[in-house]
Amino acid sequence: MESSSSLLDLAIRTVFGNIDKYDKEYVKIVVEPVRQKMLHEVFQKADNHCVTCDGQENINDKLWAILPCLINSKLATKLDTNDINMRYCKCSELSNSRFQELIRSLRSLTPNLKELKIEVTMQVKYSLEERELASISQLKNLAILKICNVQVPLLGILDLTRQCENLKSISATNVECDDLLPNAALREDFVYVNIKAFNARYPGQLLLKMETTMPEGPKYADHTHYVEFRLIVRPRKIRHLILPQLFAKKLKEIDFNCNDLEDMEDMEEFQHFPAIKYARIDCANKSAHVLRCFMKRNGESLQELTLSEIDIREKITFGEIFSLCPNLQSLGLNCCTVVGNDAPVDGMRQLKEFEWKTHESEFCGYRKGCRHLYDEVAFSSVLSAPLLKRLYFELPNMDFSDNATVIARIERREILRNLKRLLSLHESSTASASIAIVLVLCSPVLYVVFLSCTHCSLFFKSSKVDS
């Protein structure tokens, strides 16, 4: 037994040391009688390498070189390259060519894979090109594909989805995006697409996730297809805001920050998203030009809009927002100064929720000394929205000059007839508290909270709270 063990060890060392000199098809034939045992020993050698490493041997590269000769299973349904990748040895840097060689072998080595995760370290620039993608596309039972830290072209991803008909979930962190995709098409049964762009760090690359099942949650319930786009790292150029057309036409949600945009004033018009419903835009206390371009092109179909850090110098008004976005059901303002208390009733026919917060806390984007803390603001015109159900404001410097008129209109049931929830958290006079009292007495409001008022704290709650 000891002799056979030493012979096997000798065989492993010989194959390891000379793998690039041999015909690998011949190696497969020779090692077949002991292939399974040899595979086990190879992994044992890799596991123990960190203890015995002398820095003289790139064992990771050699490990990946020999694996195509040892892995051969029609029964295997899962493969994770993390299980064969040595992360903690500085002397074991896997080359891109060796990495690609193993991926090209998968169609013959493990033809019945259902789940494949391809992940490598970020020390080397790894990529999946035409031949590697062709190999993966031959895995006809593949249902789940994850690609991490490996560059892959968007067109290749789309081709994969069409050729692997059983594919139900695909995600990739470094998708190289080329907007010039004349024949590109998204497989119709991929109903959910999540796109995150790194832009500034990885220009032209996307993090892409596509699923054949819709996520749970009320936001997705009424949609047959849902595409959302978020820029994780703030874009530097307006071209970084452009999506490939096959995603743009189905985009439902977008989220981006303008803080680092260097050429925002050069934008002539925003890309059109005909199906857009939800948007979160942070103007970063800079120019609101990009925001205006976005609303002019895409405001008509918006249902929910959340805006942050709009400076008073930009002179954004309620009239402008609601005239460009007349179908809003929800408007949220975070650390914004909107001037002009001029919200038009015709532009608020669908509005059900309104929220405006400017507060000084560790969670505030402006932090201590925020200029918005001192800007006097008013929003009484928004109270005329006929369907308004929820109202939340946290504003340290509110203009209550028309308070008597507002209270009189509430008493006559002209406004806020459908209000169900009212929440206010701020330091202010009792003017806003008096509005709360009138609301409870004169309207069907079911839930009212006023906290931290200068003269009083009010809390009203009905047993019939509408969530």
From TrEMBL:
InterPro entries: LRR_dom_sf
Keyword annotations from UniProtKB, A to Z: Membrane, Transmembrane, Transmembrane helix
Keyword Transmembrane helix included in the entry's annotation: yes
Residues passing through the membrane, by range: 435-460
Protein name per Swiss-Prot or TrEMBL: Uncharacterized protein
Organism: Cloeon dipterum
Higher taxonomy: Eukaryota, Metazoa, Ecdysozoa, Arthropoda, Hexapoda
